[in-house]
Amino acid sequence: MSKERSSAIRIVKSTYLIFISIMVAWFGAWLLKIQLERGLTWLTTSRGSFAFWTVTKLILWIIPALYLLQISQRSVWELFNFANWISWLKWGGGLGLLIALTALVPNYLQGNPLLPAGLSWPLVNVILIAPFFEEFLMRGAILGNLQLRYSFFTANIISSLMFLILHIPGWFFTGVLQQSFRQPIGGALSIFLVSLVFGWATHRSKSLMAGILAHFLNNLF
């Protein structure tokens, strides 16, 4: 076995182990929040919840993602590739708007608002924190590492399944787990499919910014 192939296998194994560790810690974070809320009512507010989950994601998602980049010898600057802005605007914006049409058209036909009515902490989380943090971990660190051993097609499917799994603790603790799988449109199936699109946008543009932009537009609408 060549040295390059051996290194790729080692990195991919480490990526799987790190993801498993993240999931265990993620379940633990939900249990911790439930316990803390009994004595700290501030955590039950939208601002308190936003602060808790932002700090938690920084610790449990971003720090491990930086480690995964380090072991694969990729830089954050290389990951974002800001210089390729035309490509990531085209792929991220184009695919993001195509996904958004699945919400825009029904809302327009039903006379519903096309944009959020006002700014709130949950909205900031959905349109800013989630696209950046989730894409940095899933498309930036994990998908990139998996591609060291697998084709993009295979790596995108695996990372999208992992992206789906990442949502399970939230669904479980908010009581919508069964609903998310019984009615996959808007739930499990939708999460998996949009993840494939985010991965494709990142791959085609060679910039994580495309995945973040597509994710942002999807969540916004």
Using brief descriptors, characterize the structure shown.
mainly alpha; 221 residues; globular; 9 helices
Protein model, in words:
It is a single chain. The N and C termini lie far apart (48 Å). Helix 2 packs parallel to helix 5, helix 4 (85-109) runs parallel beside helix 9 (208-220) and helix 5 (121-146) runs antiparallel to helix 6 (152-173). The chain has helices at residues 3-37, 46-71, 76-80, 85-109, 121-146, 152-173, 177-182, 188-205, 208-220. 28% of the residues are buried. The chain contains 9 helices and no strands. It is globular. The mean pLDDT is 94. With 221 residues, the protein is mainly α.
Q: What is the overall shape?
A: globular
Low-confidence segments, ≥5 residues, pLDDT <50? none
Q: SS-based structural class? A: mainly alpha
The major β-sheet equals:
none
Terminal Cα span: 48 Å
Task: Please report which band the strand proportion falls in: under 5%, 5-15%, 15-25%, 25-35%, 35-45% or over 45%.
Answer: under 5%
Protein topology:
Layout: H1 3-37, H2 46-71, H3 76-80, H4 85-109, H5 121-146, H6 152-173, H7 177-182, H8 188-205, H9 208-220
Short structural description:
It contains nine helices and no strands.
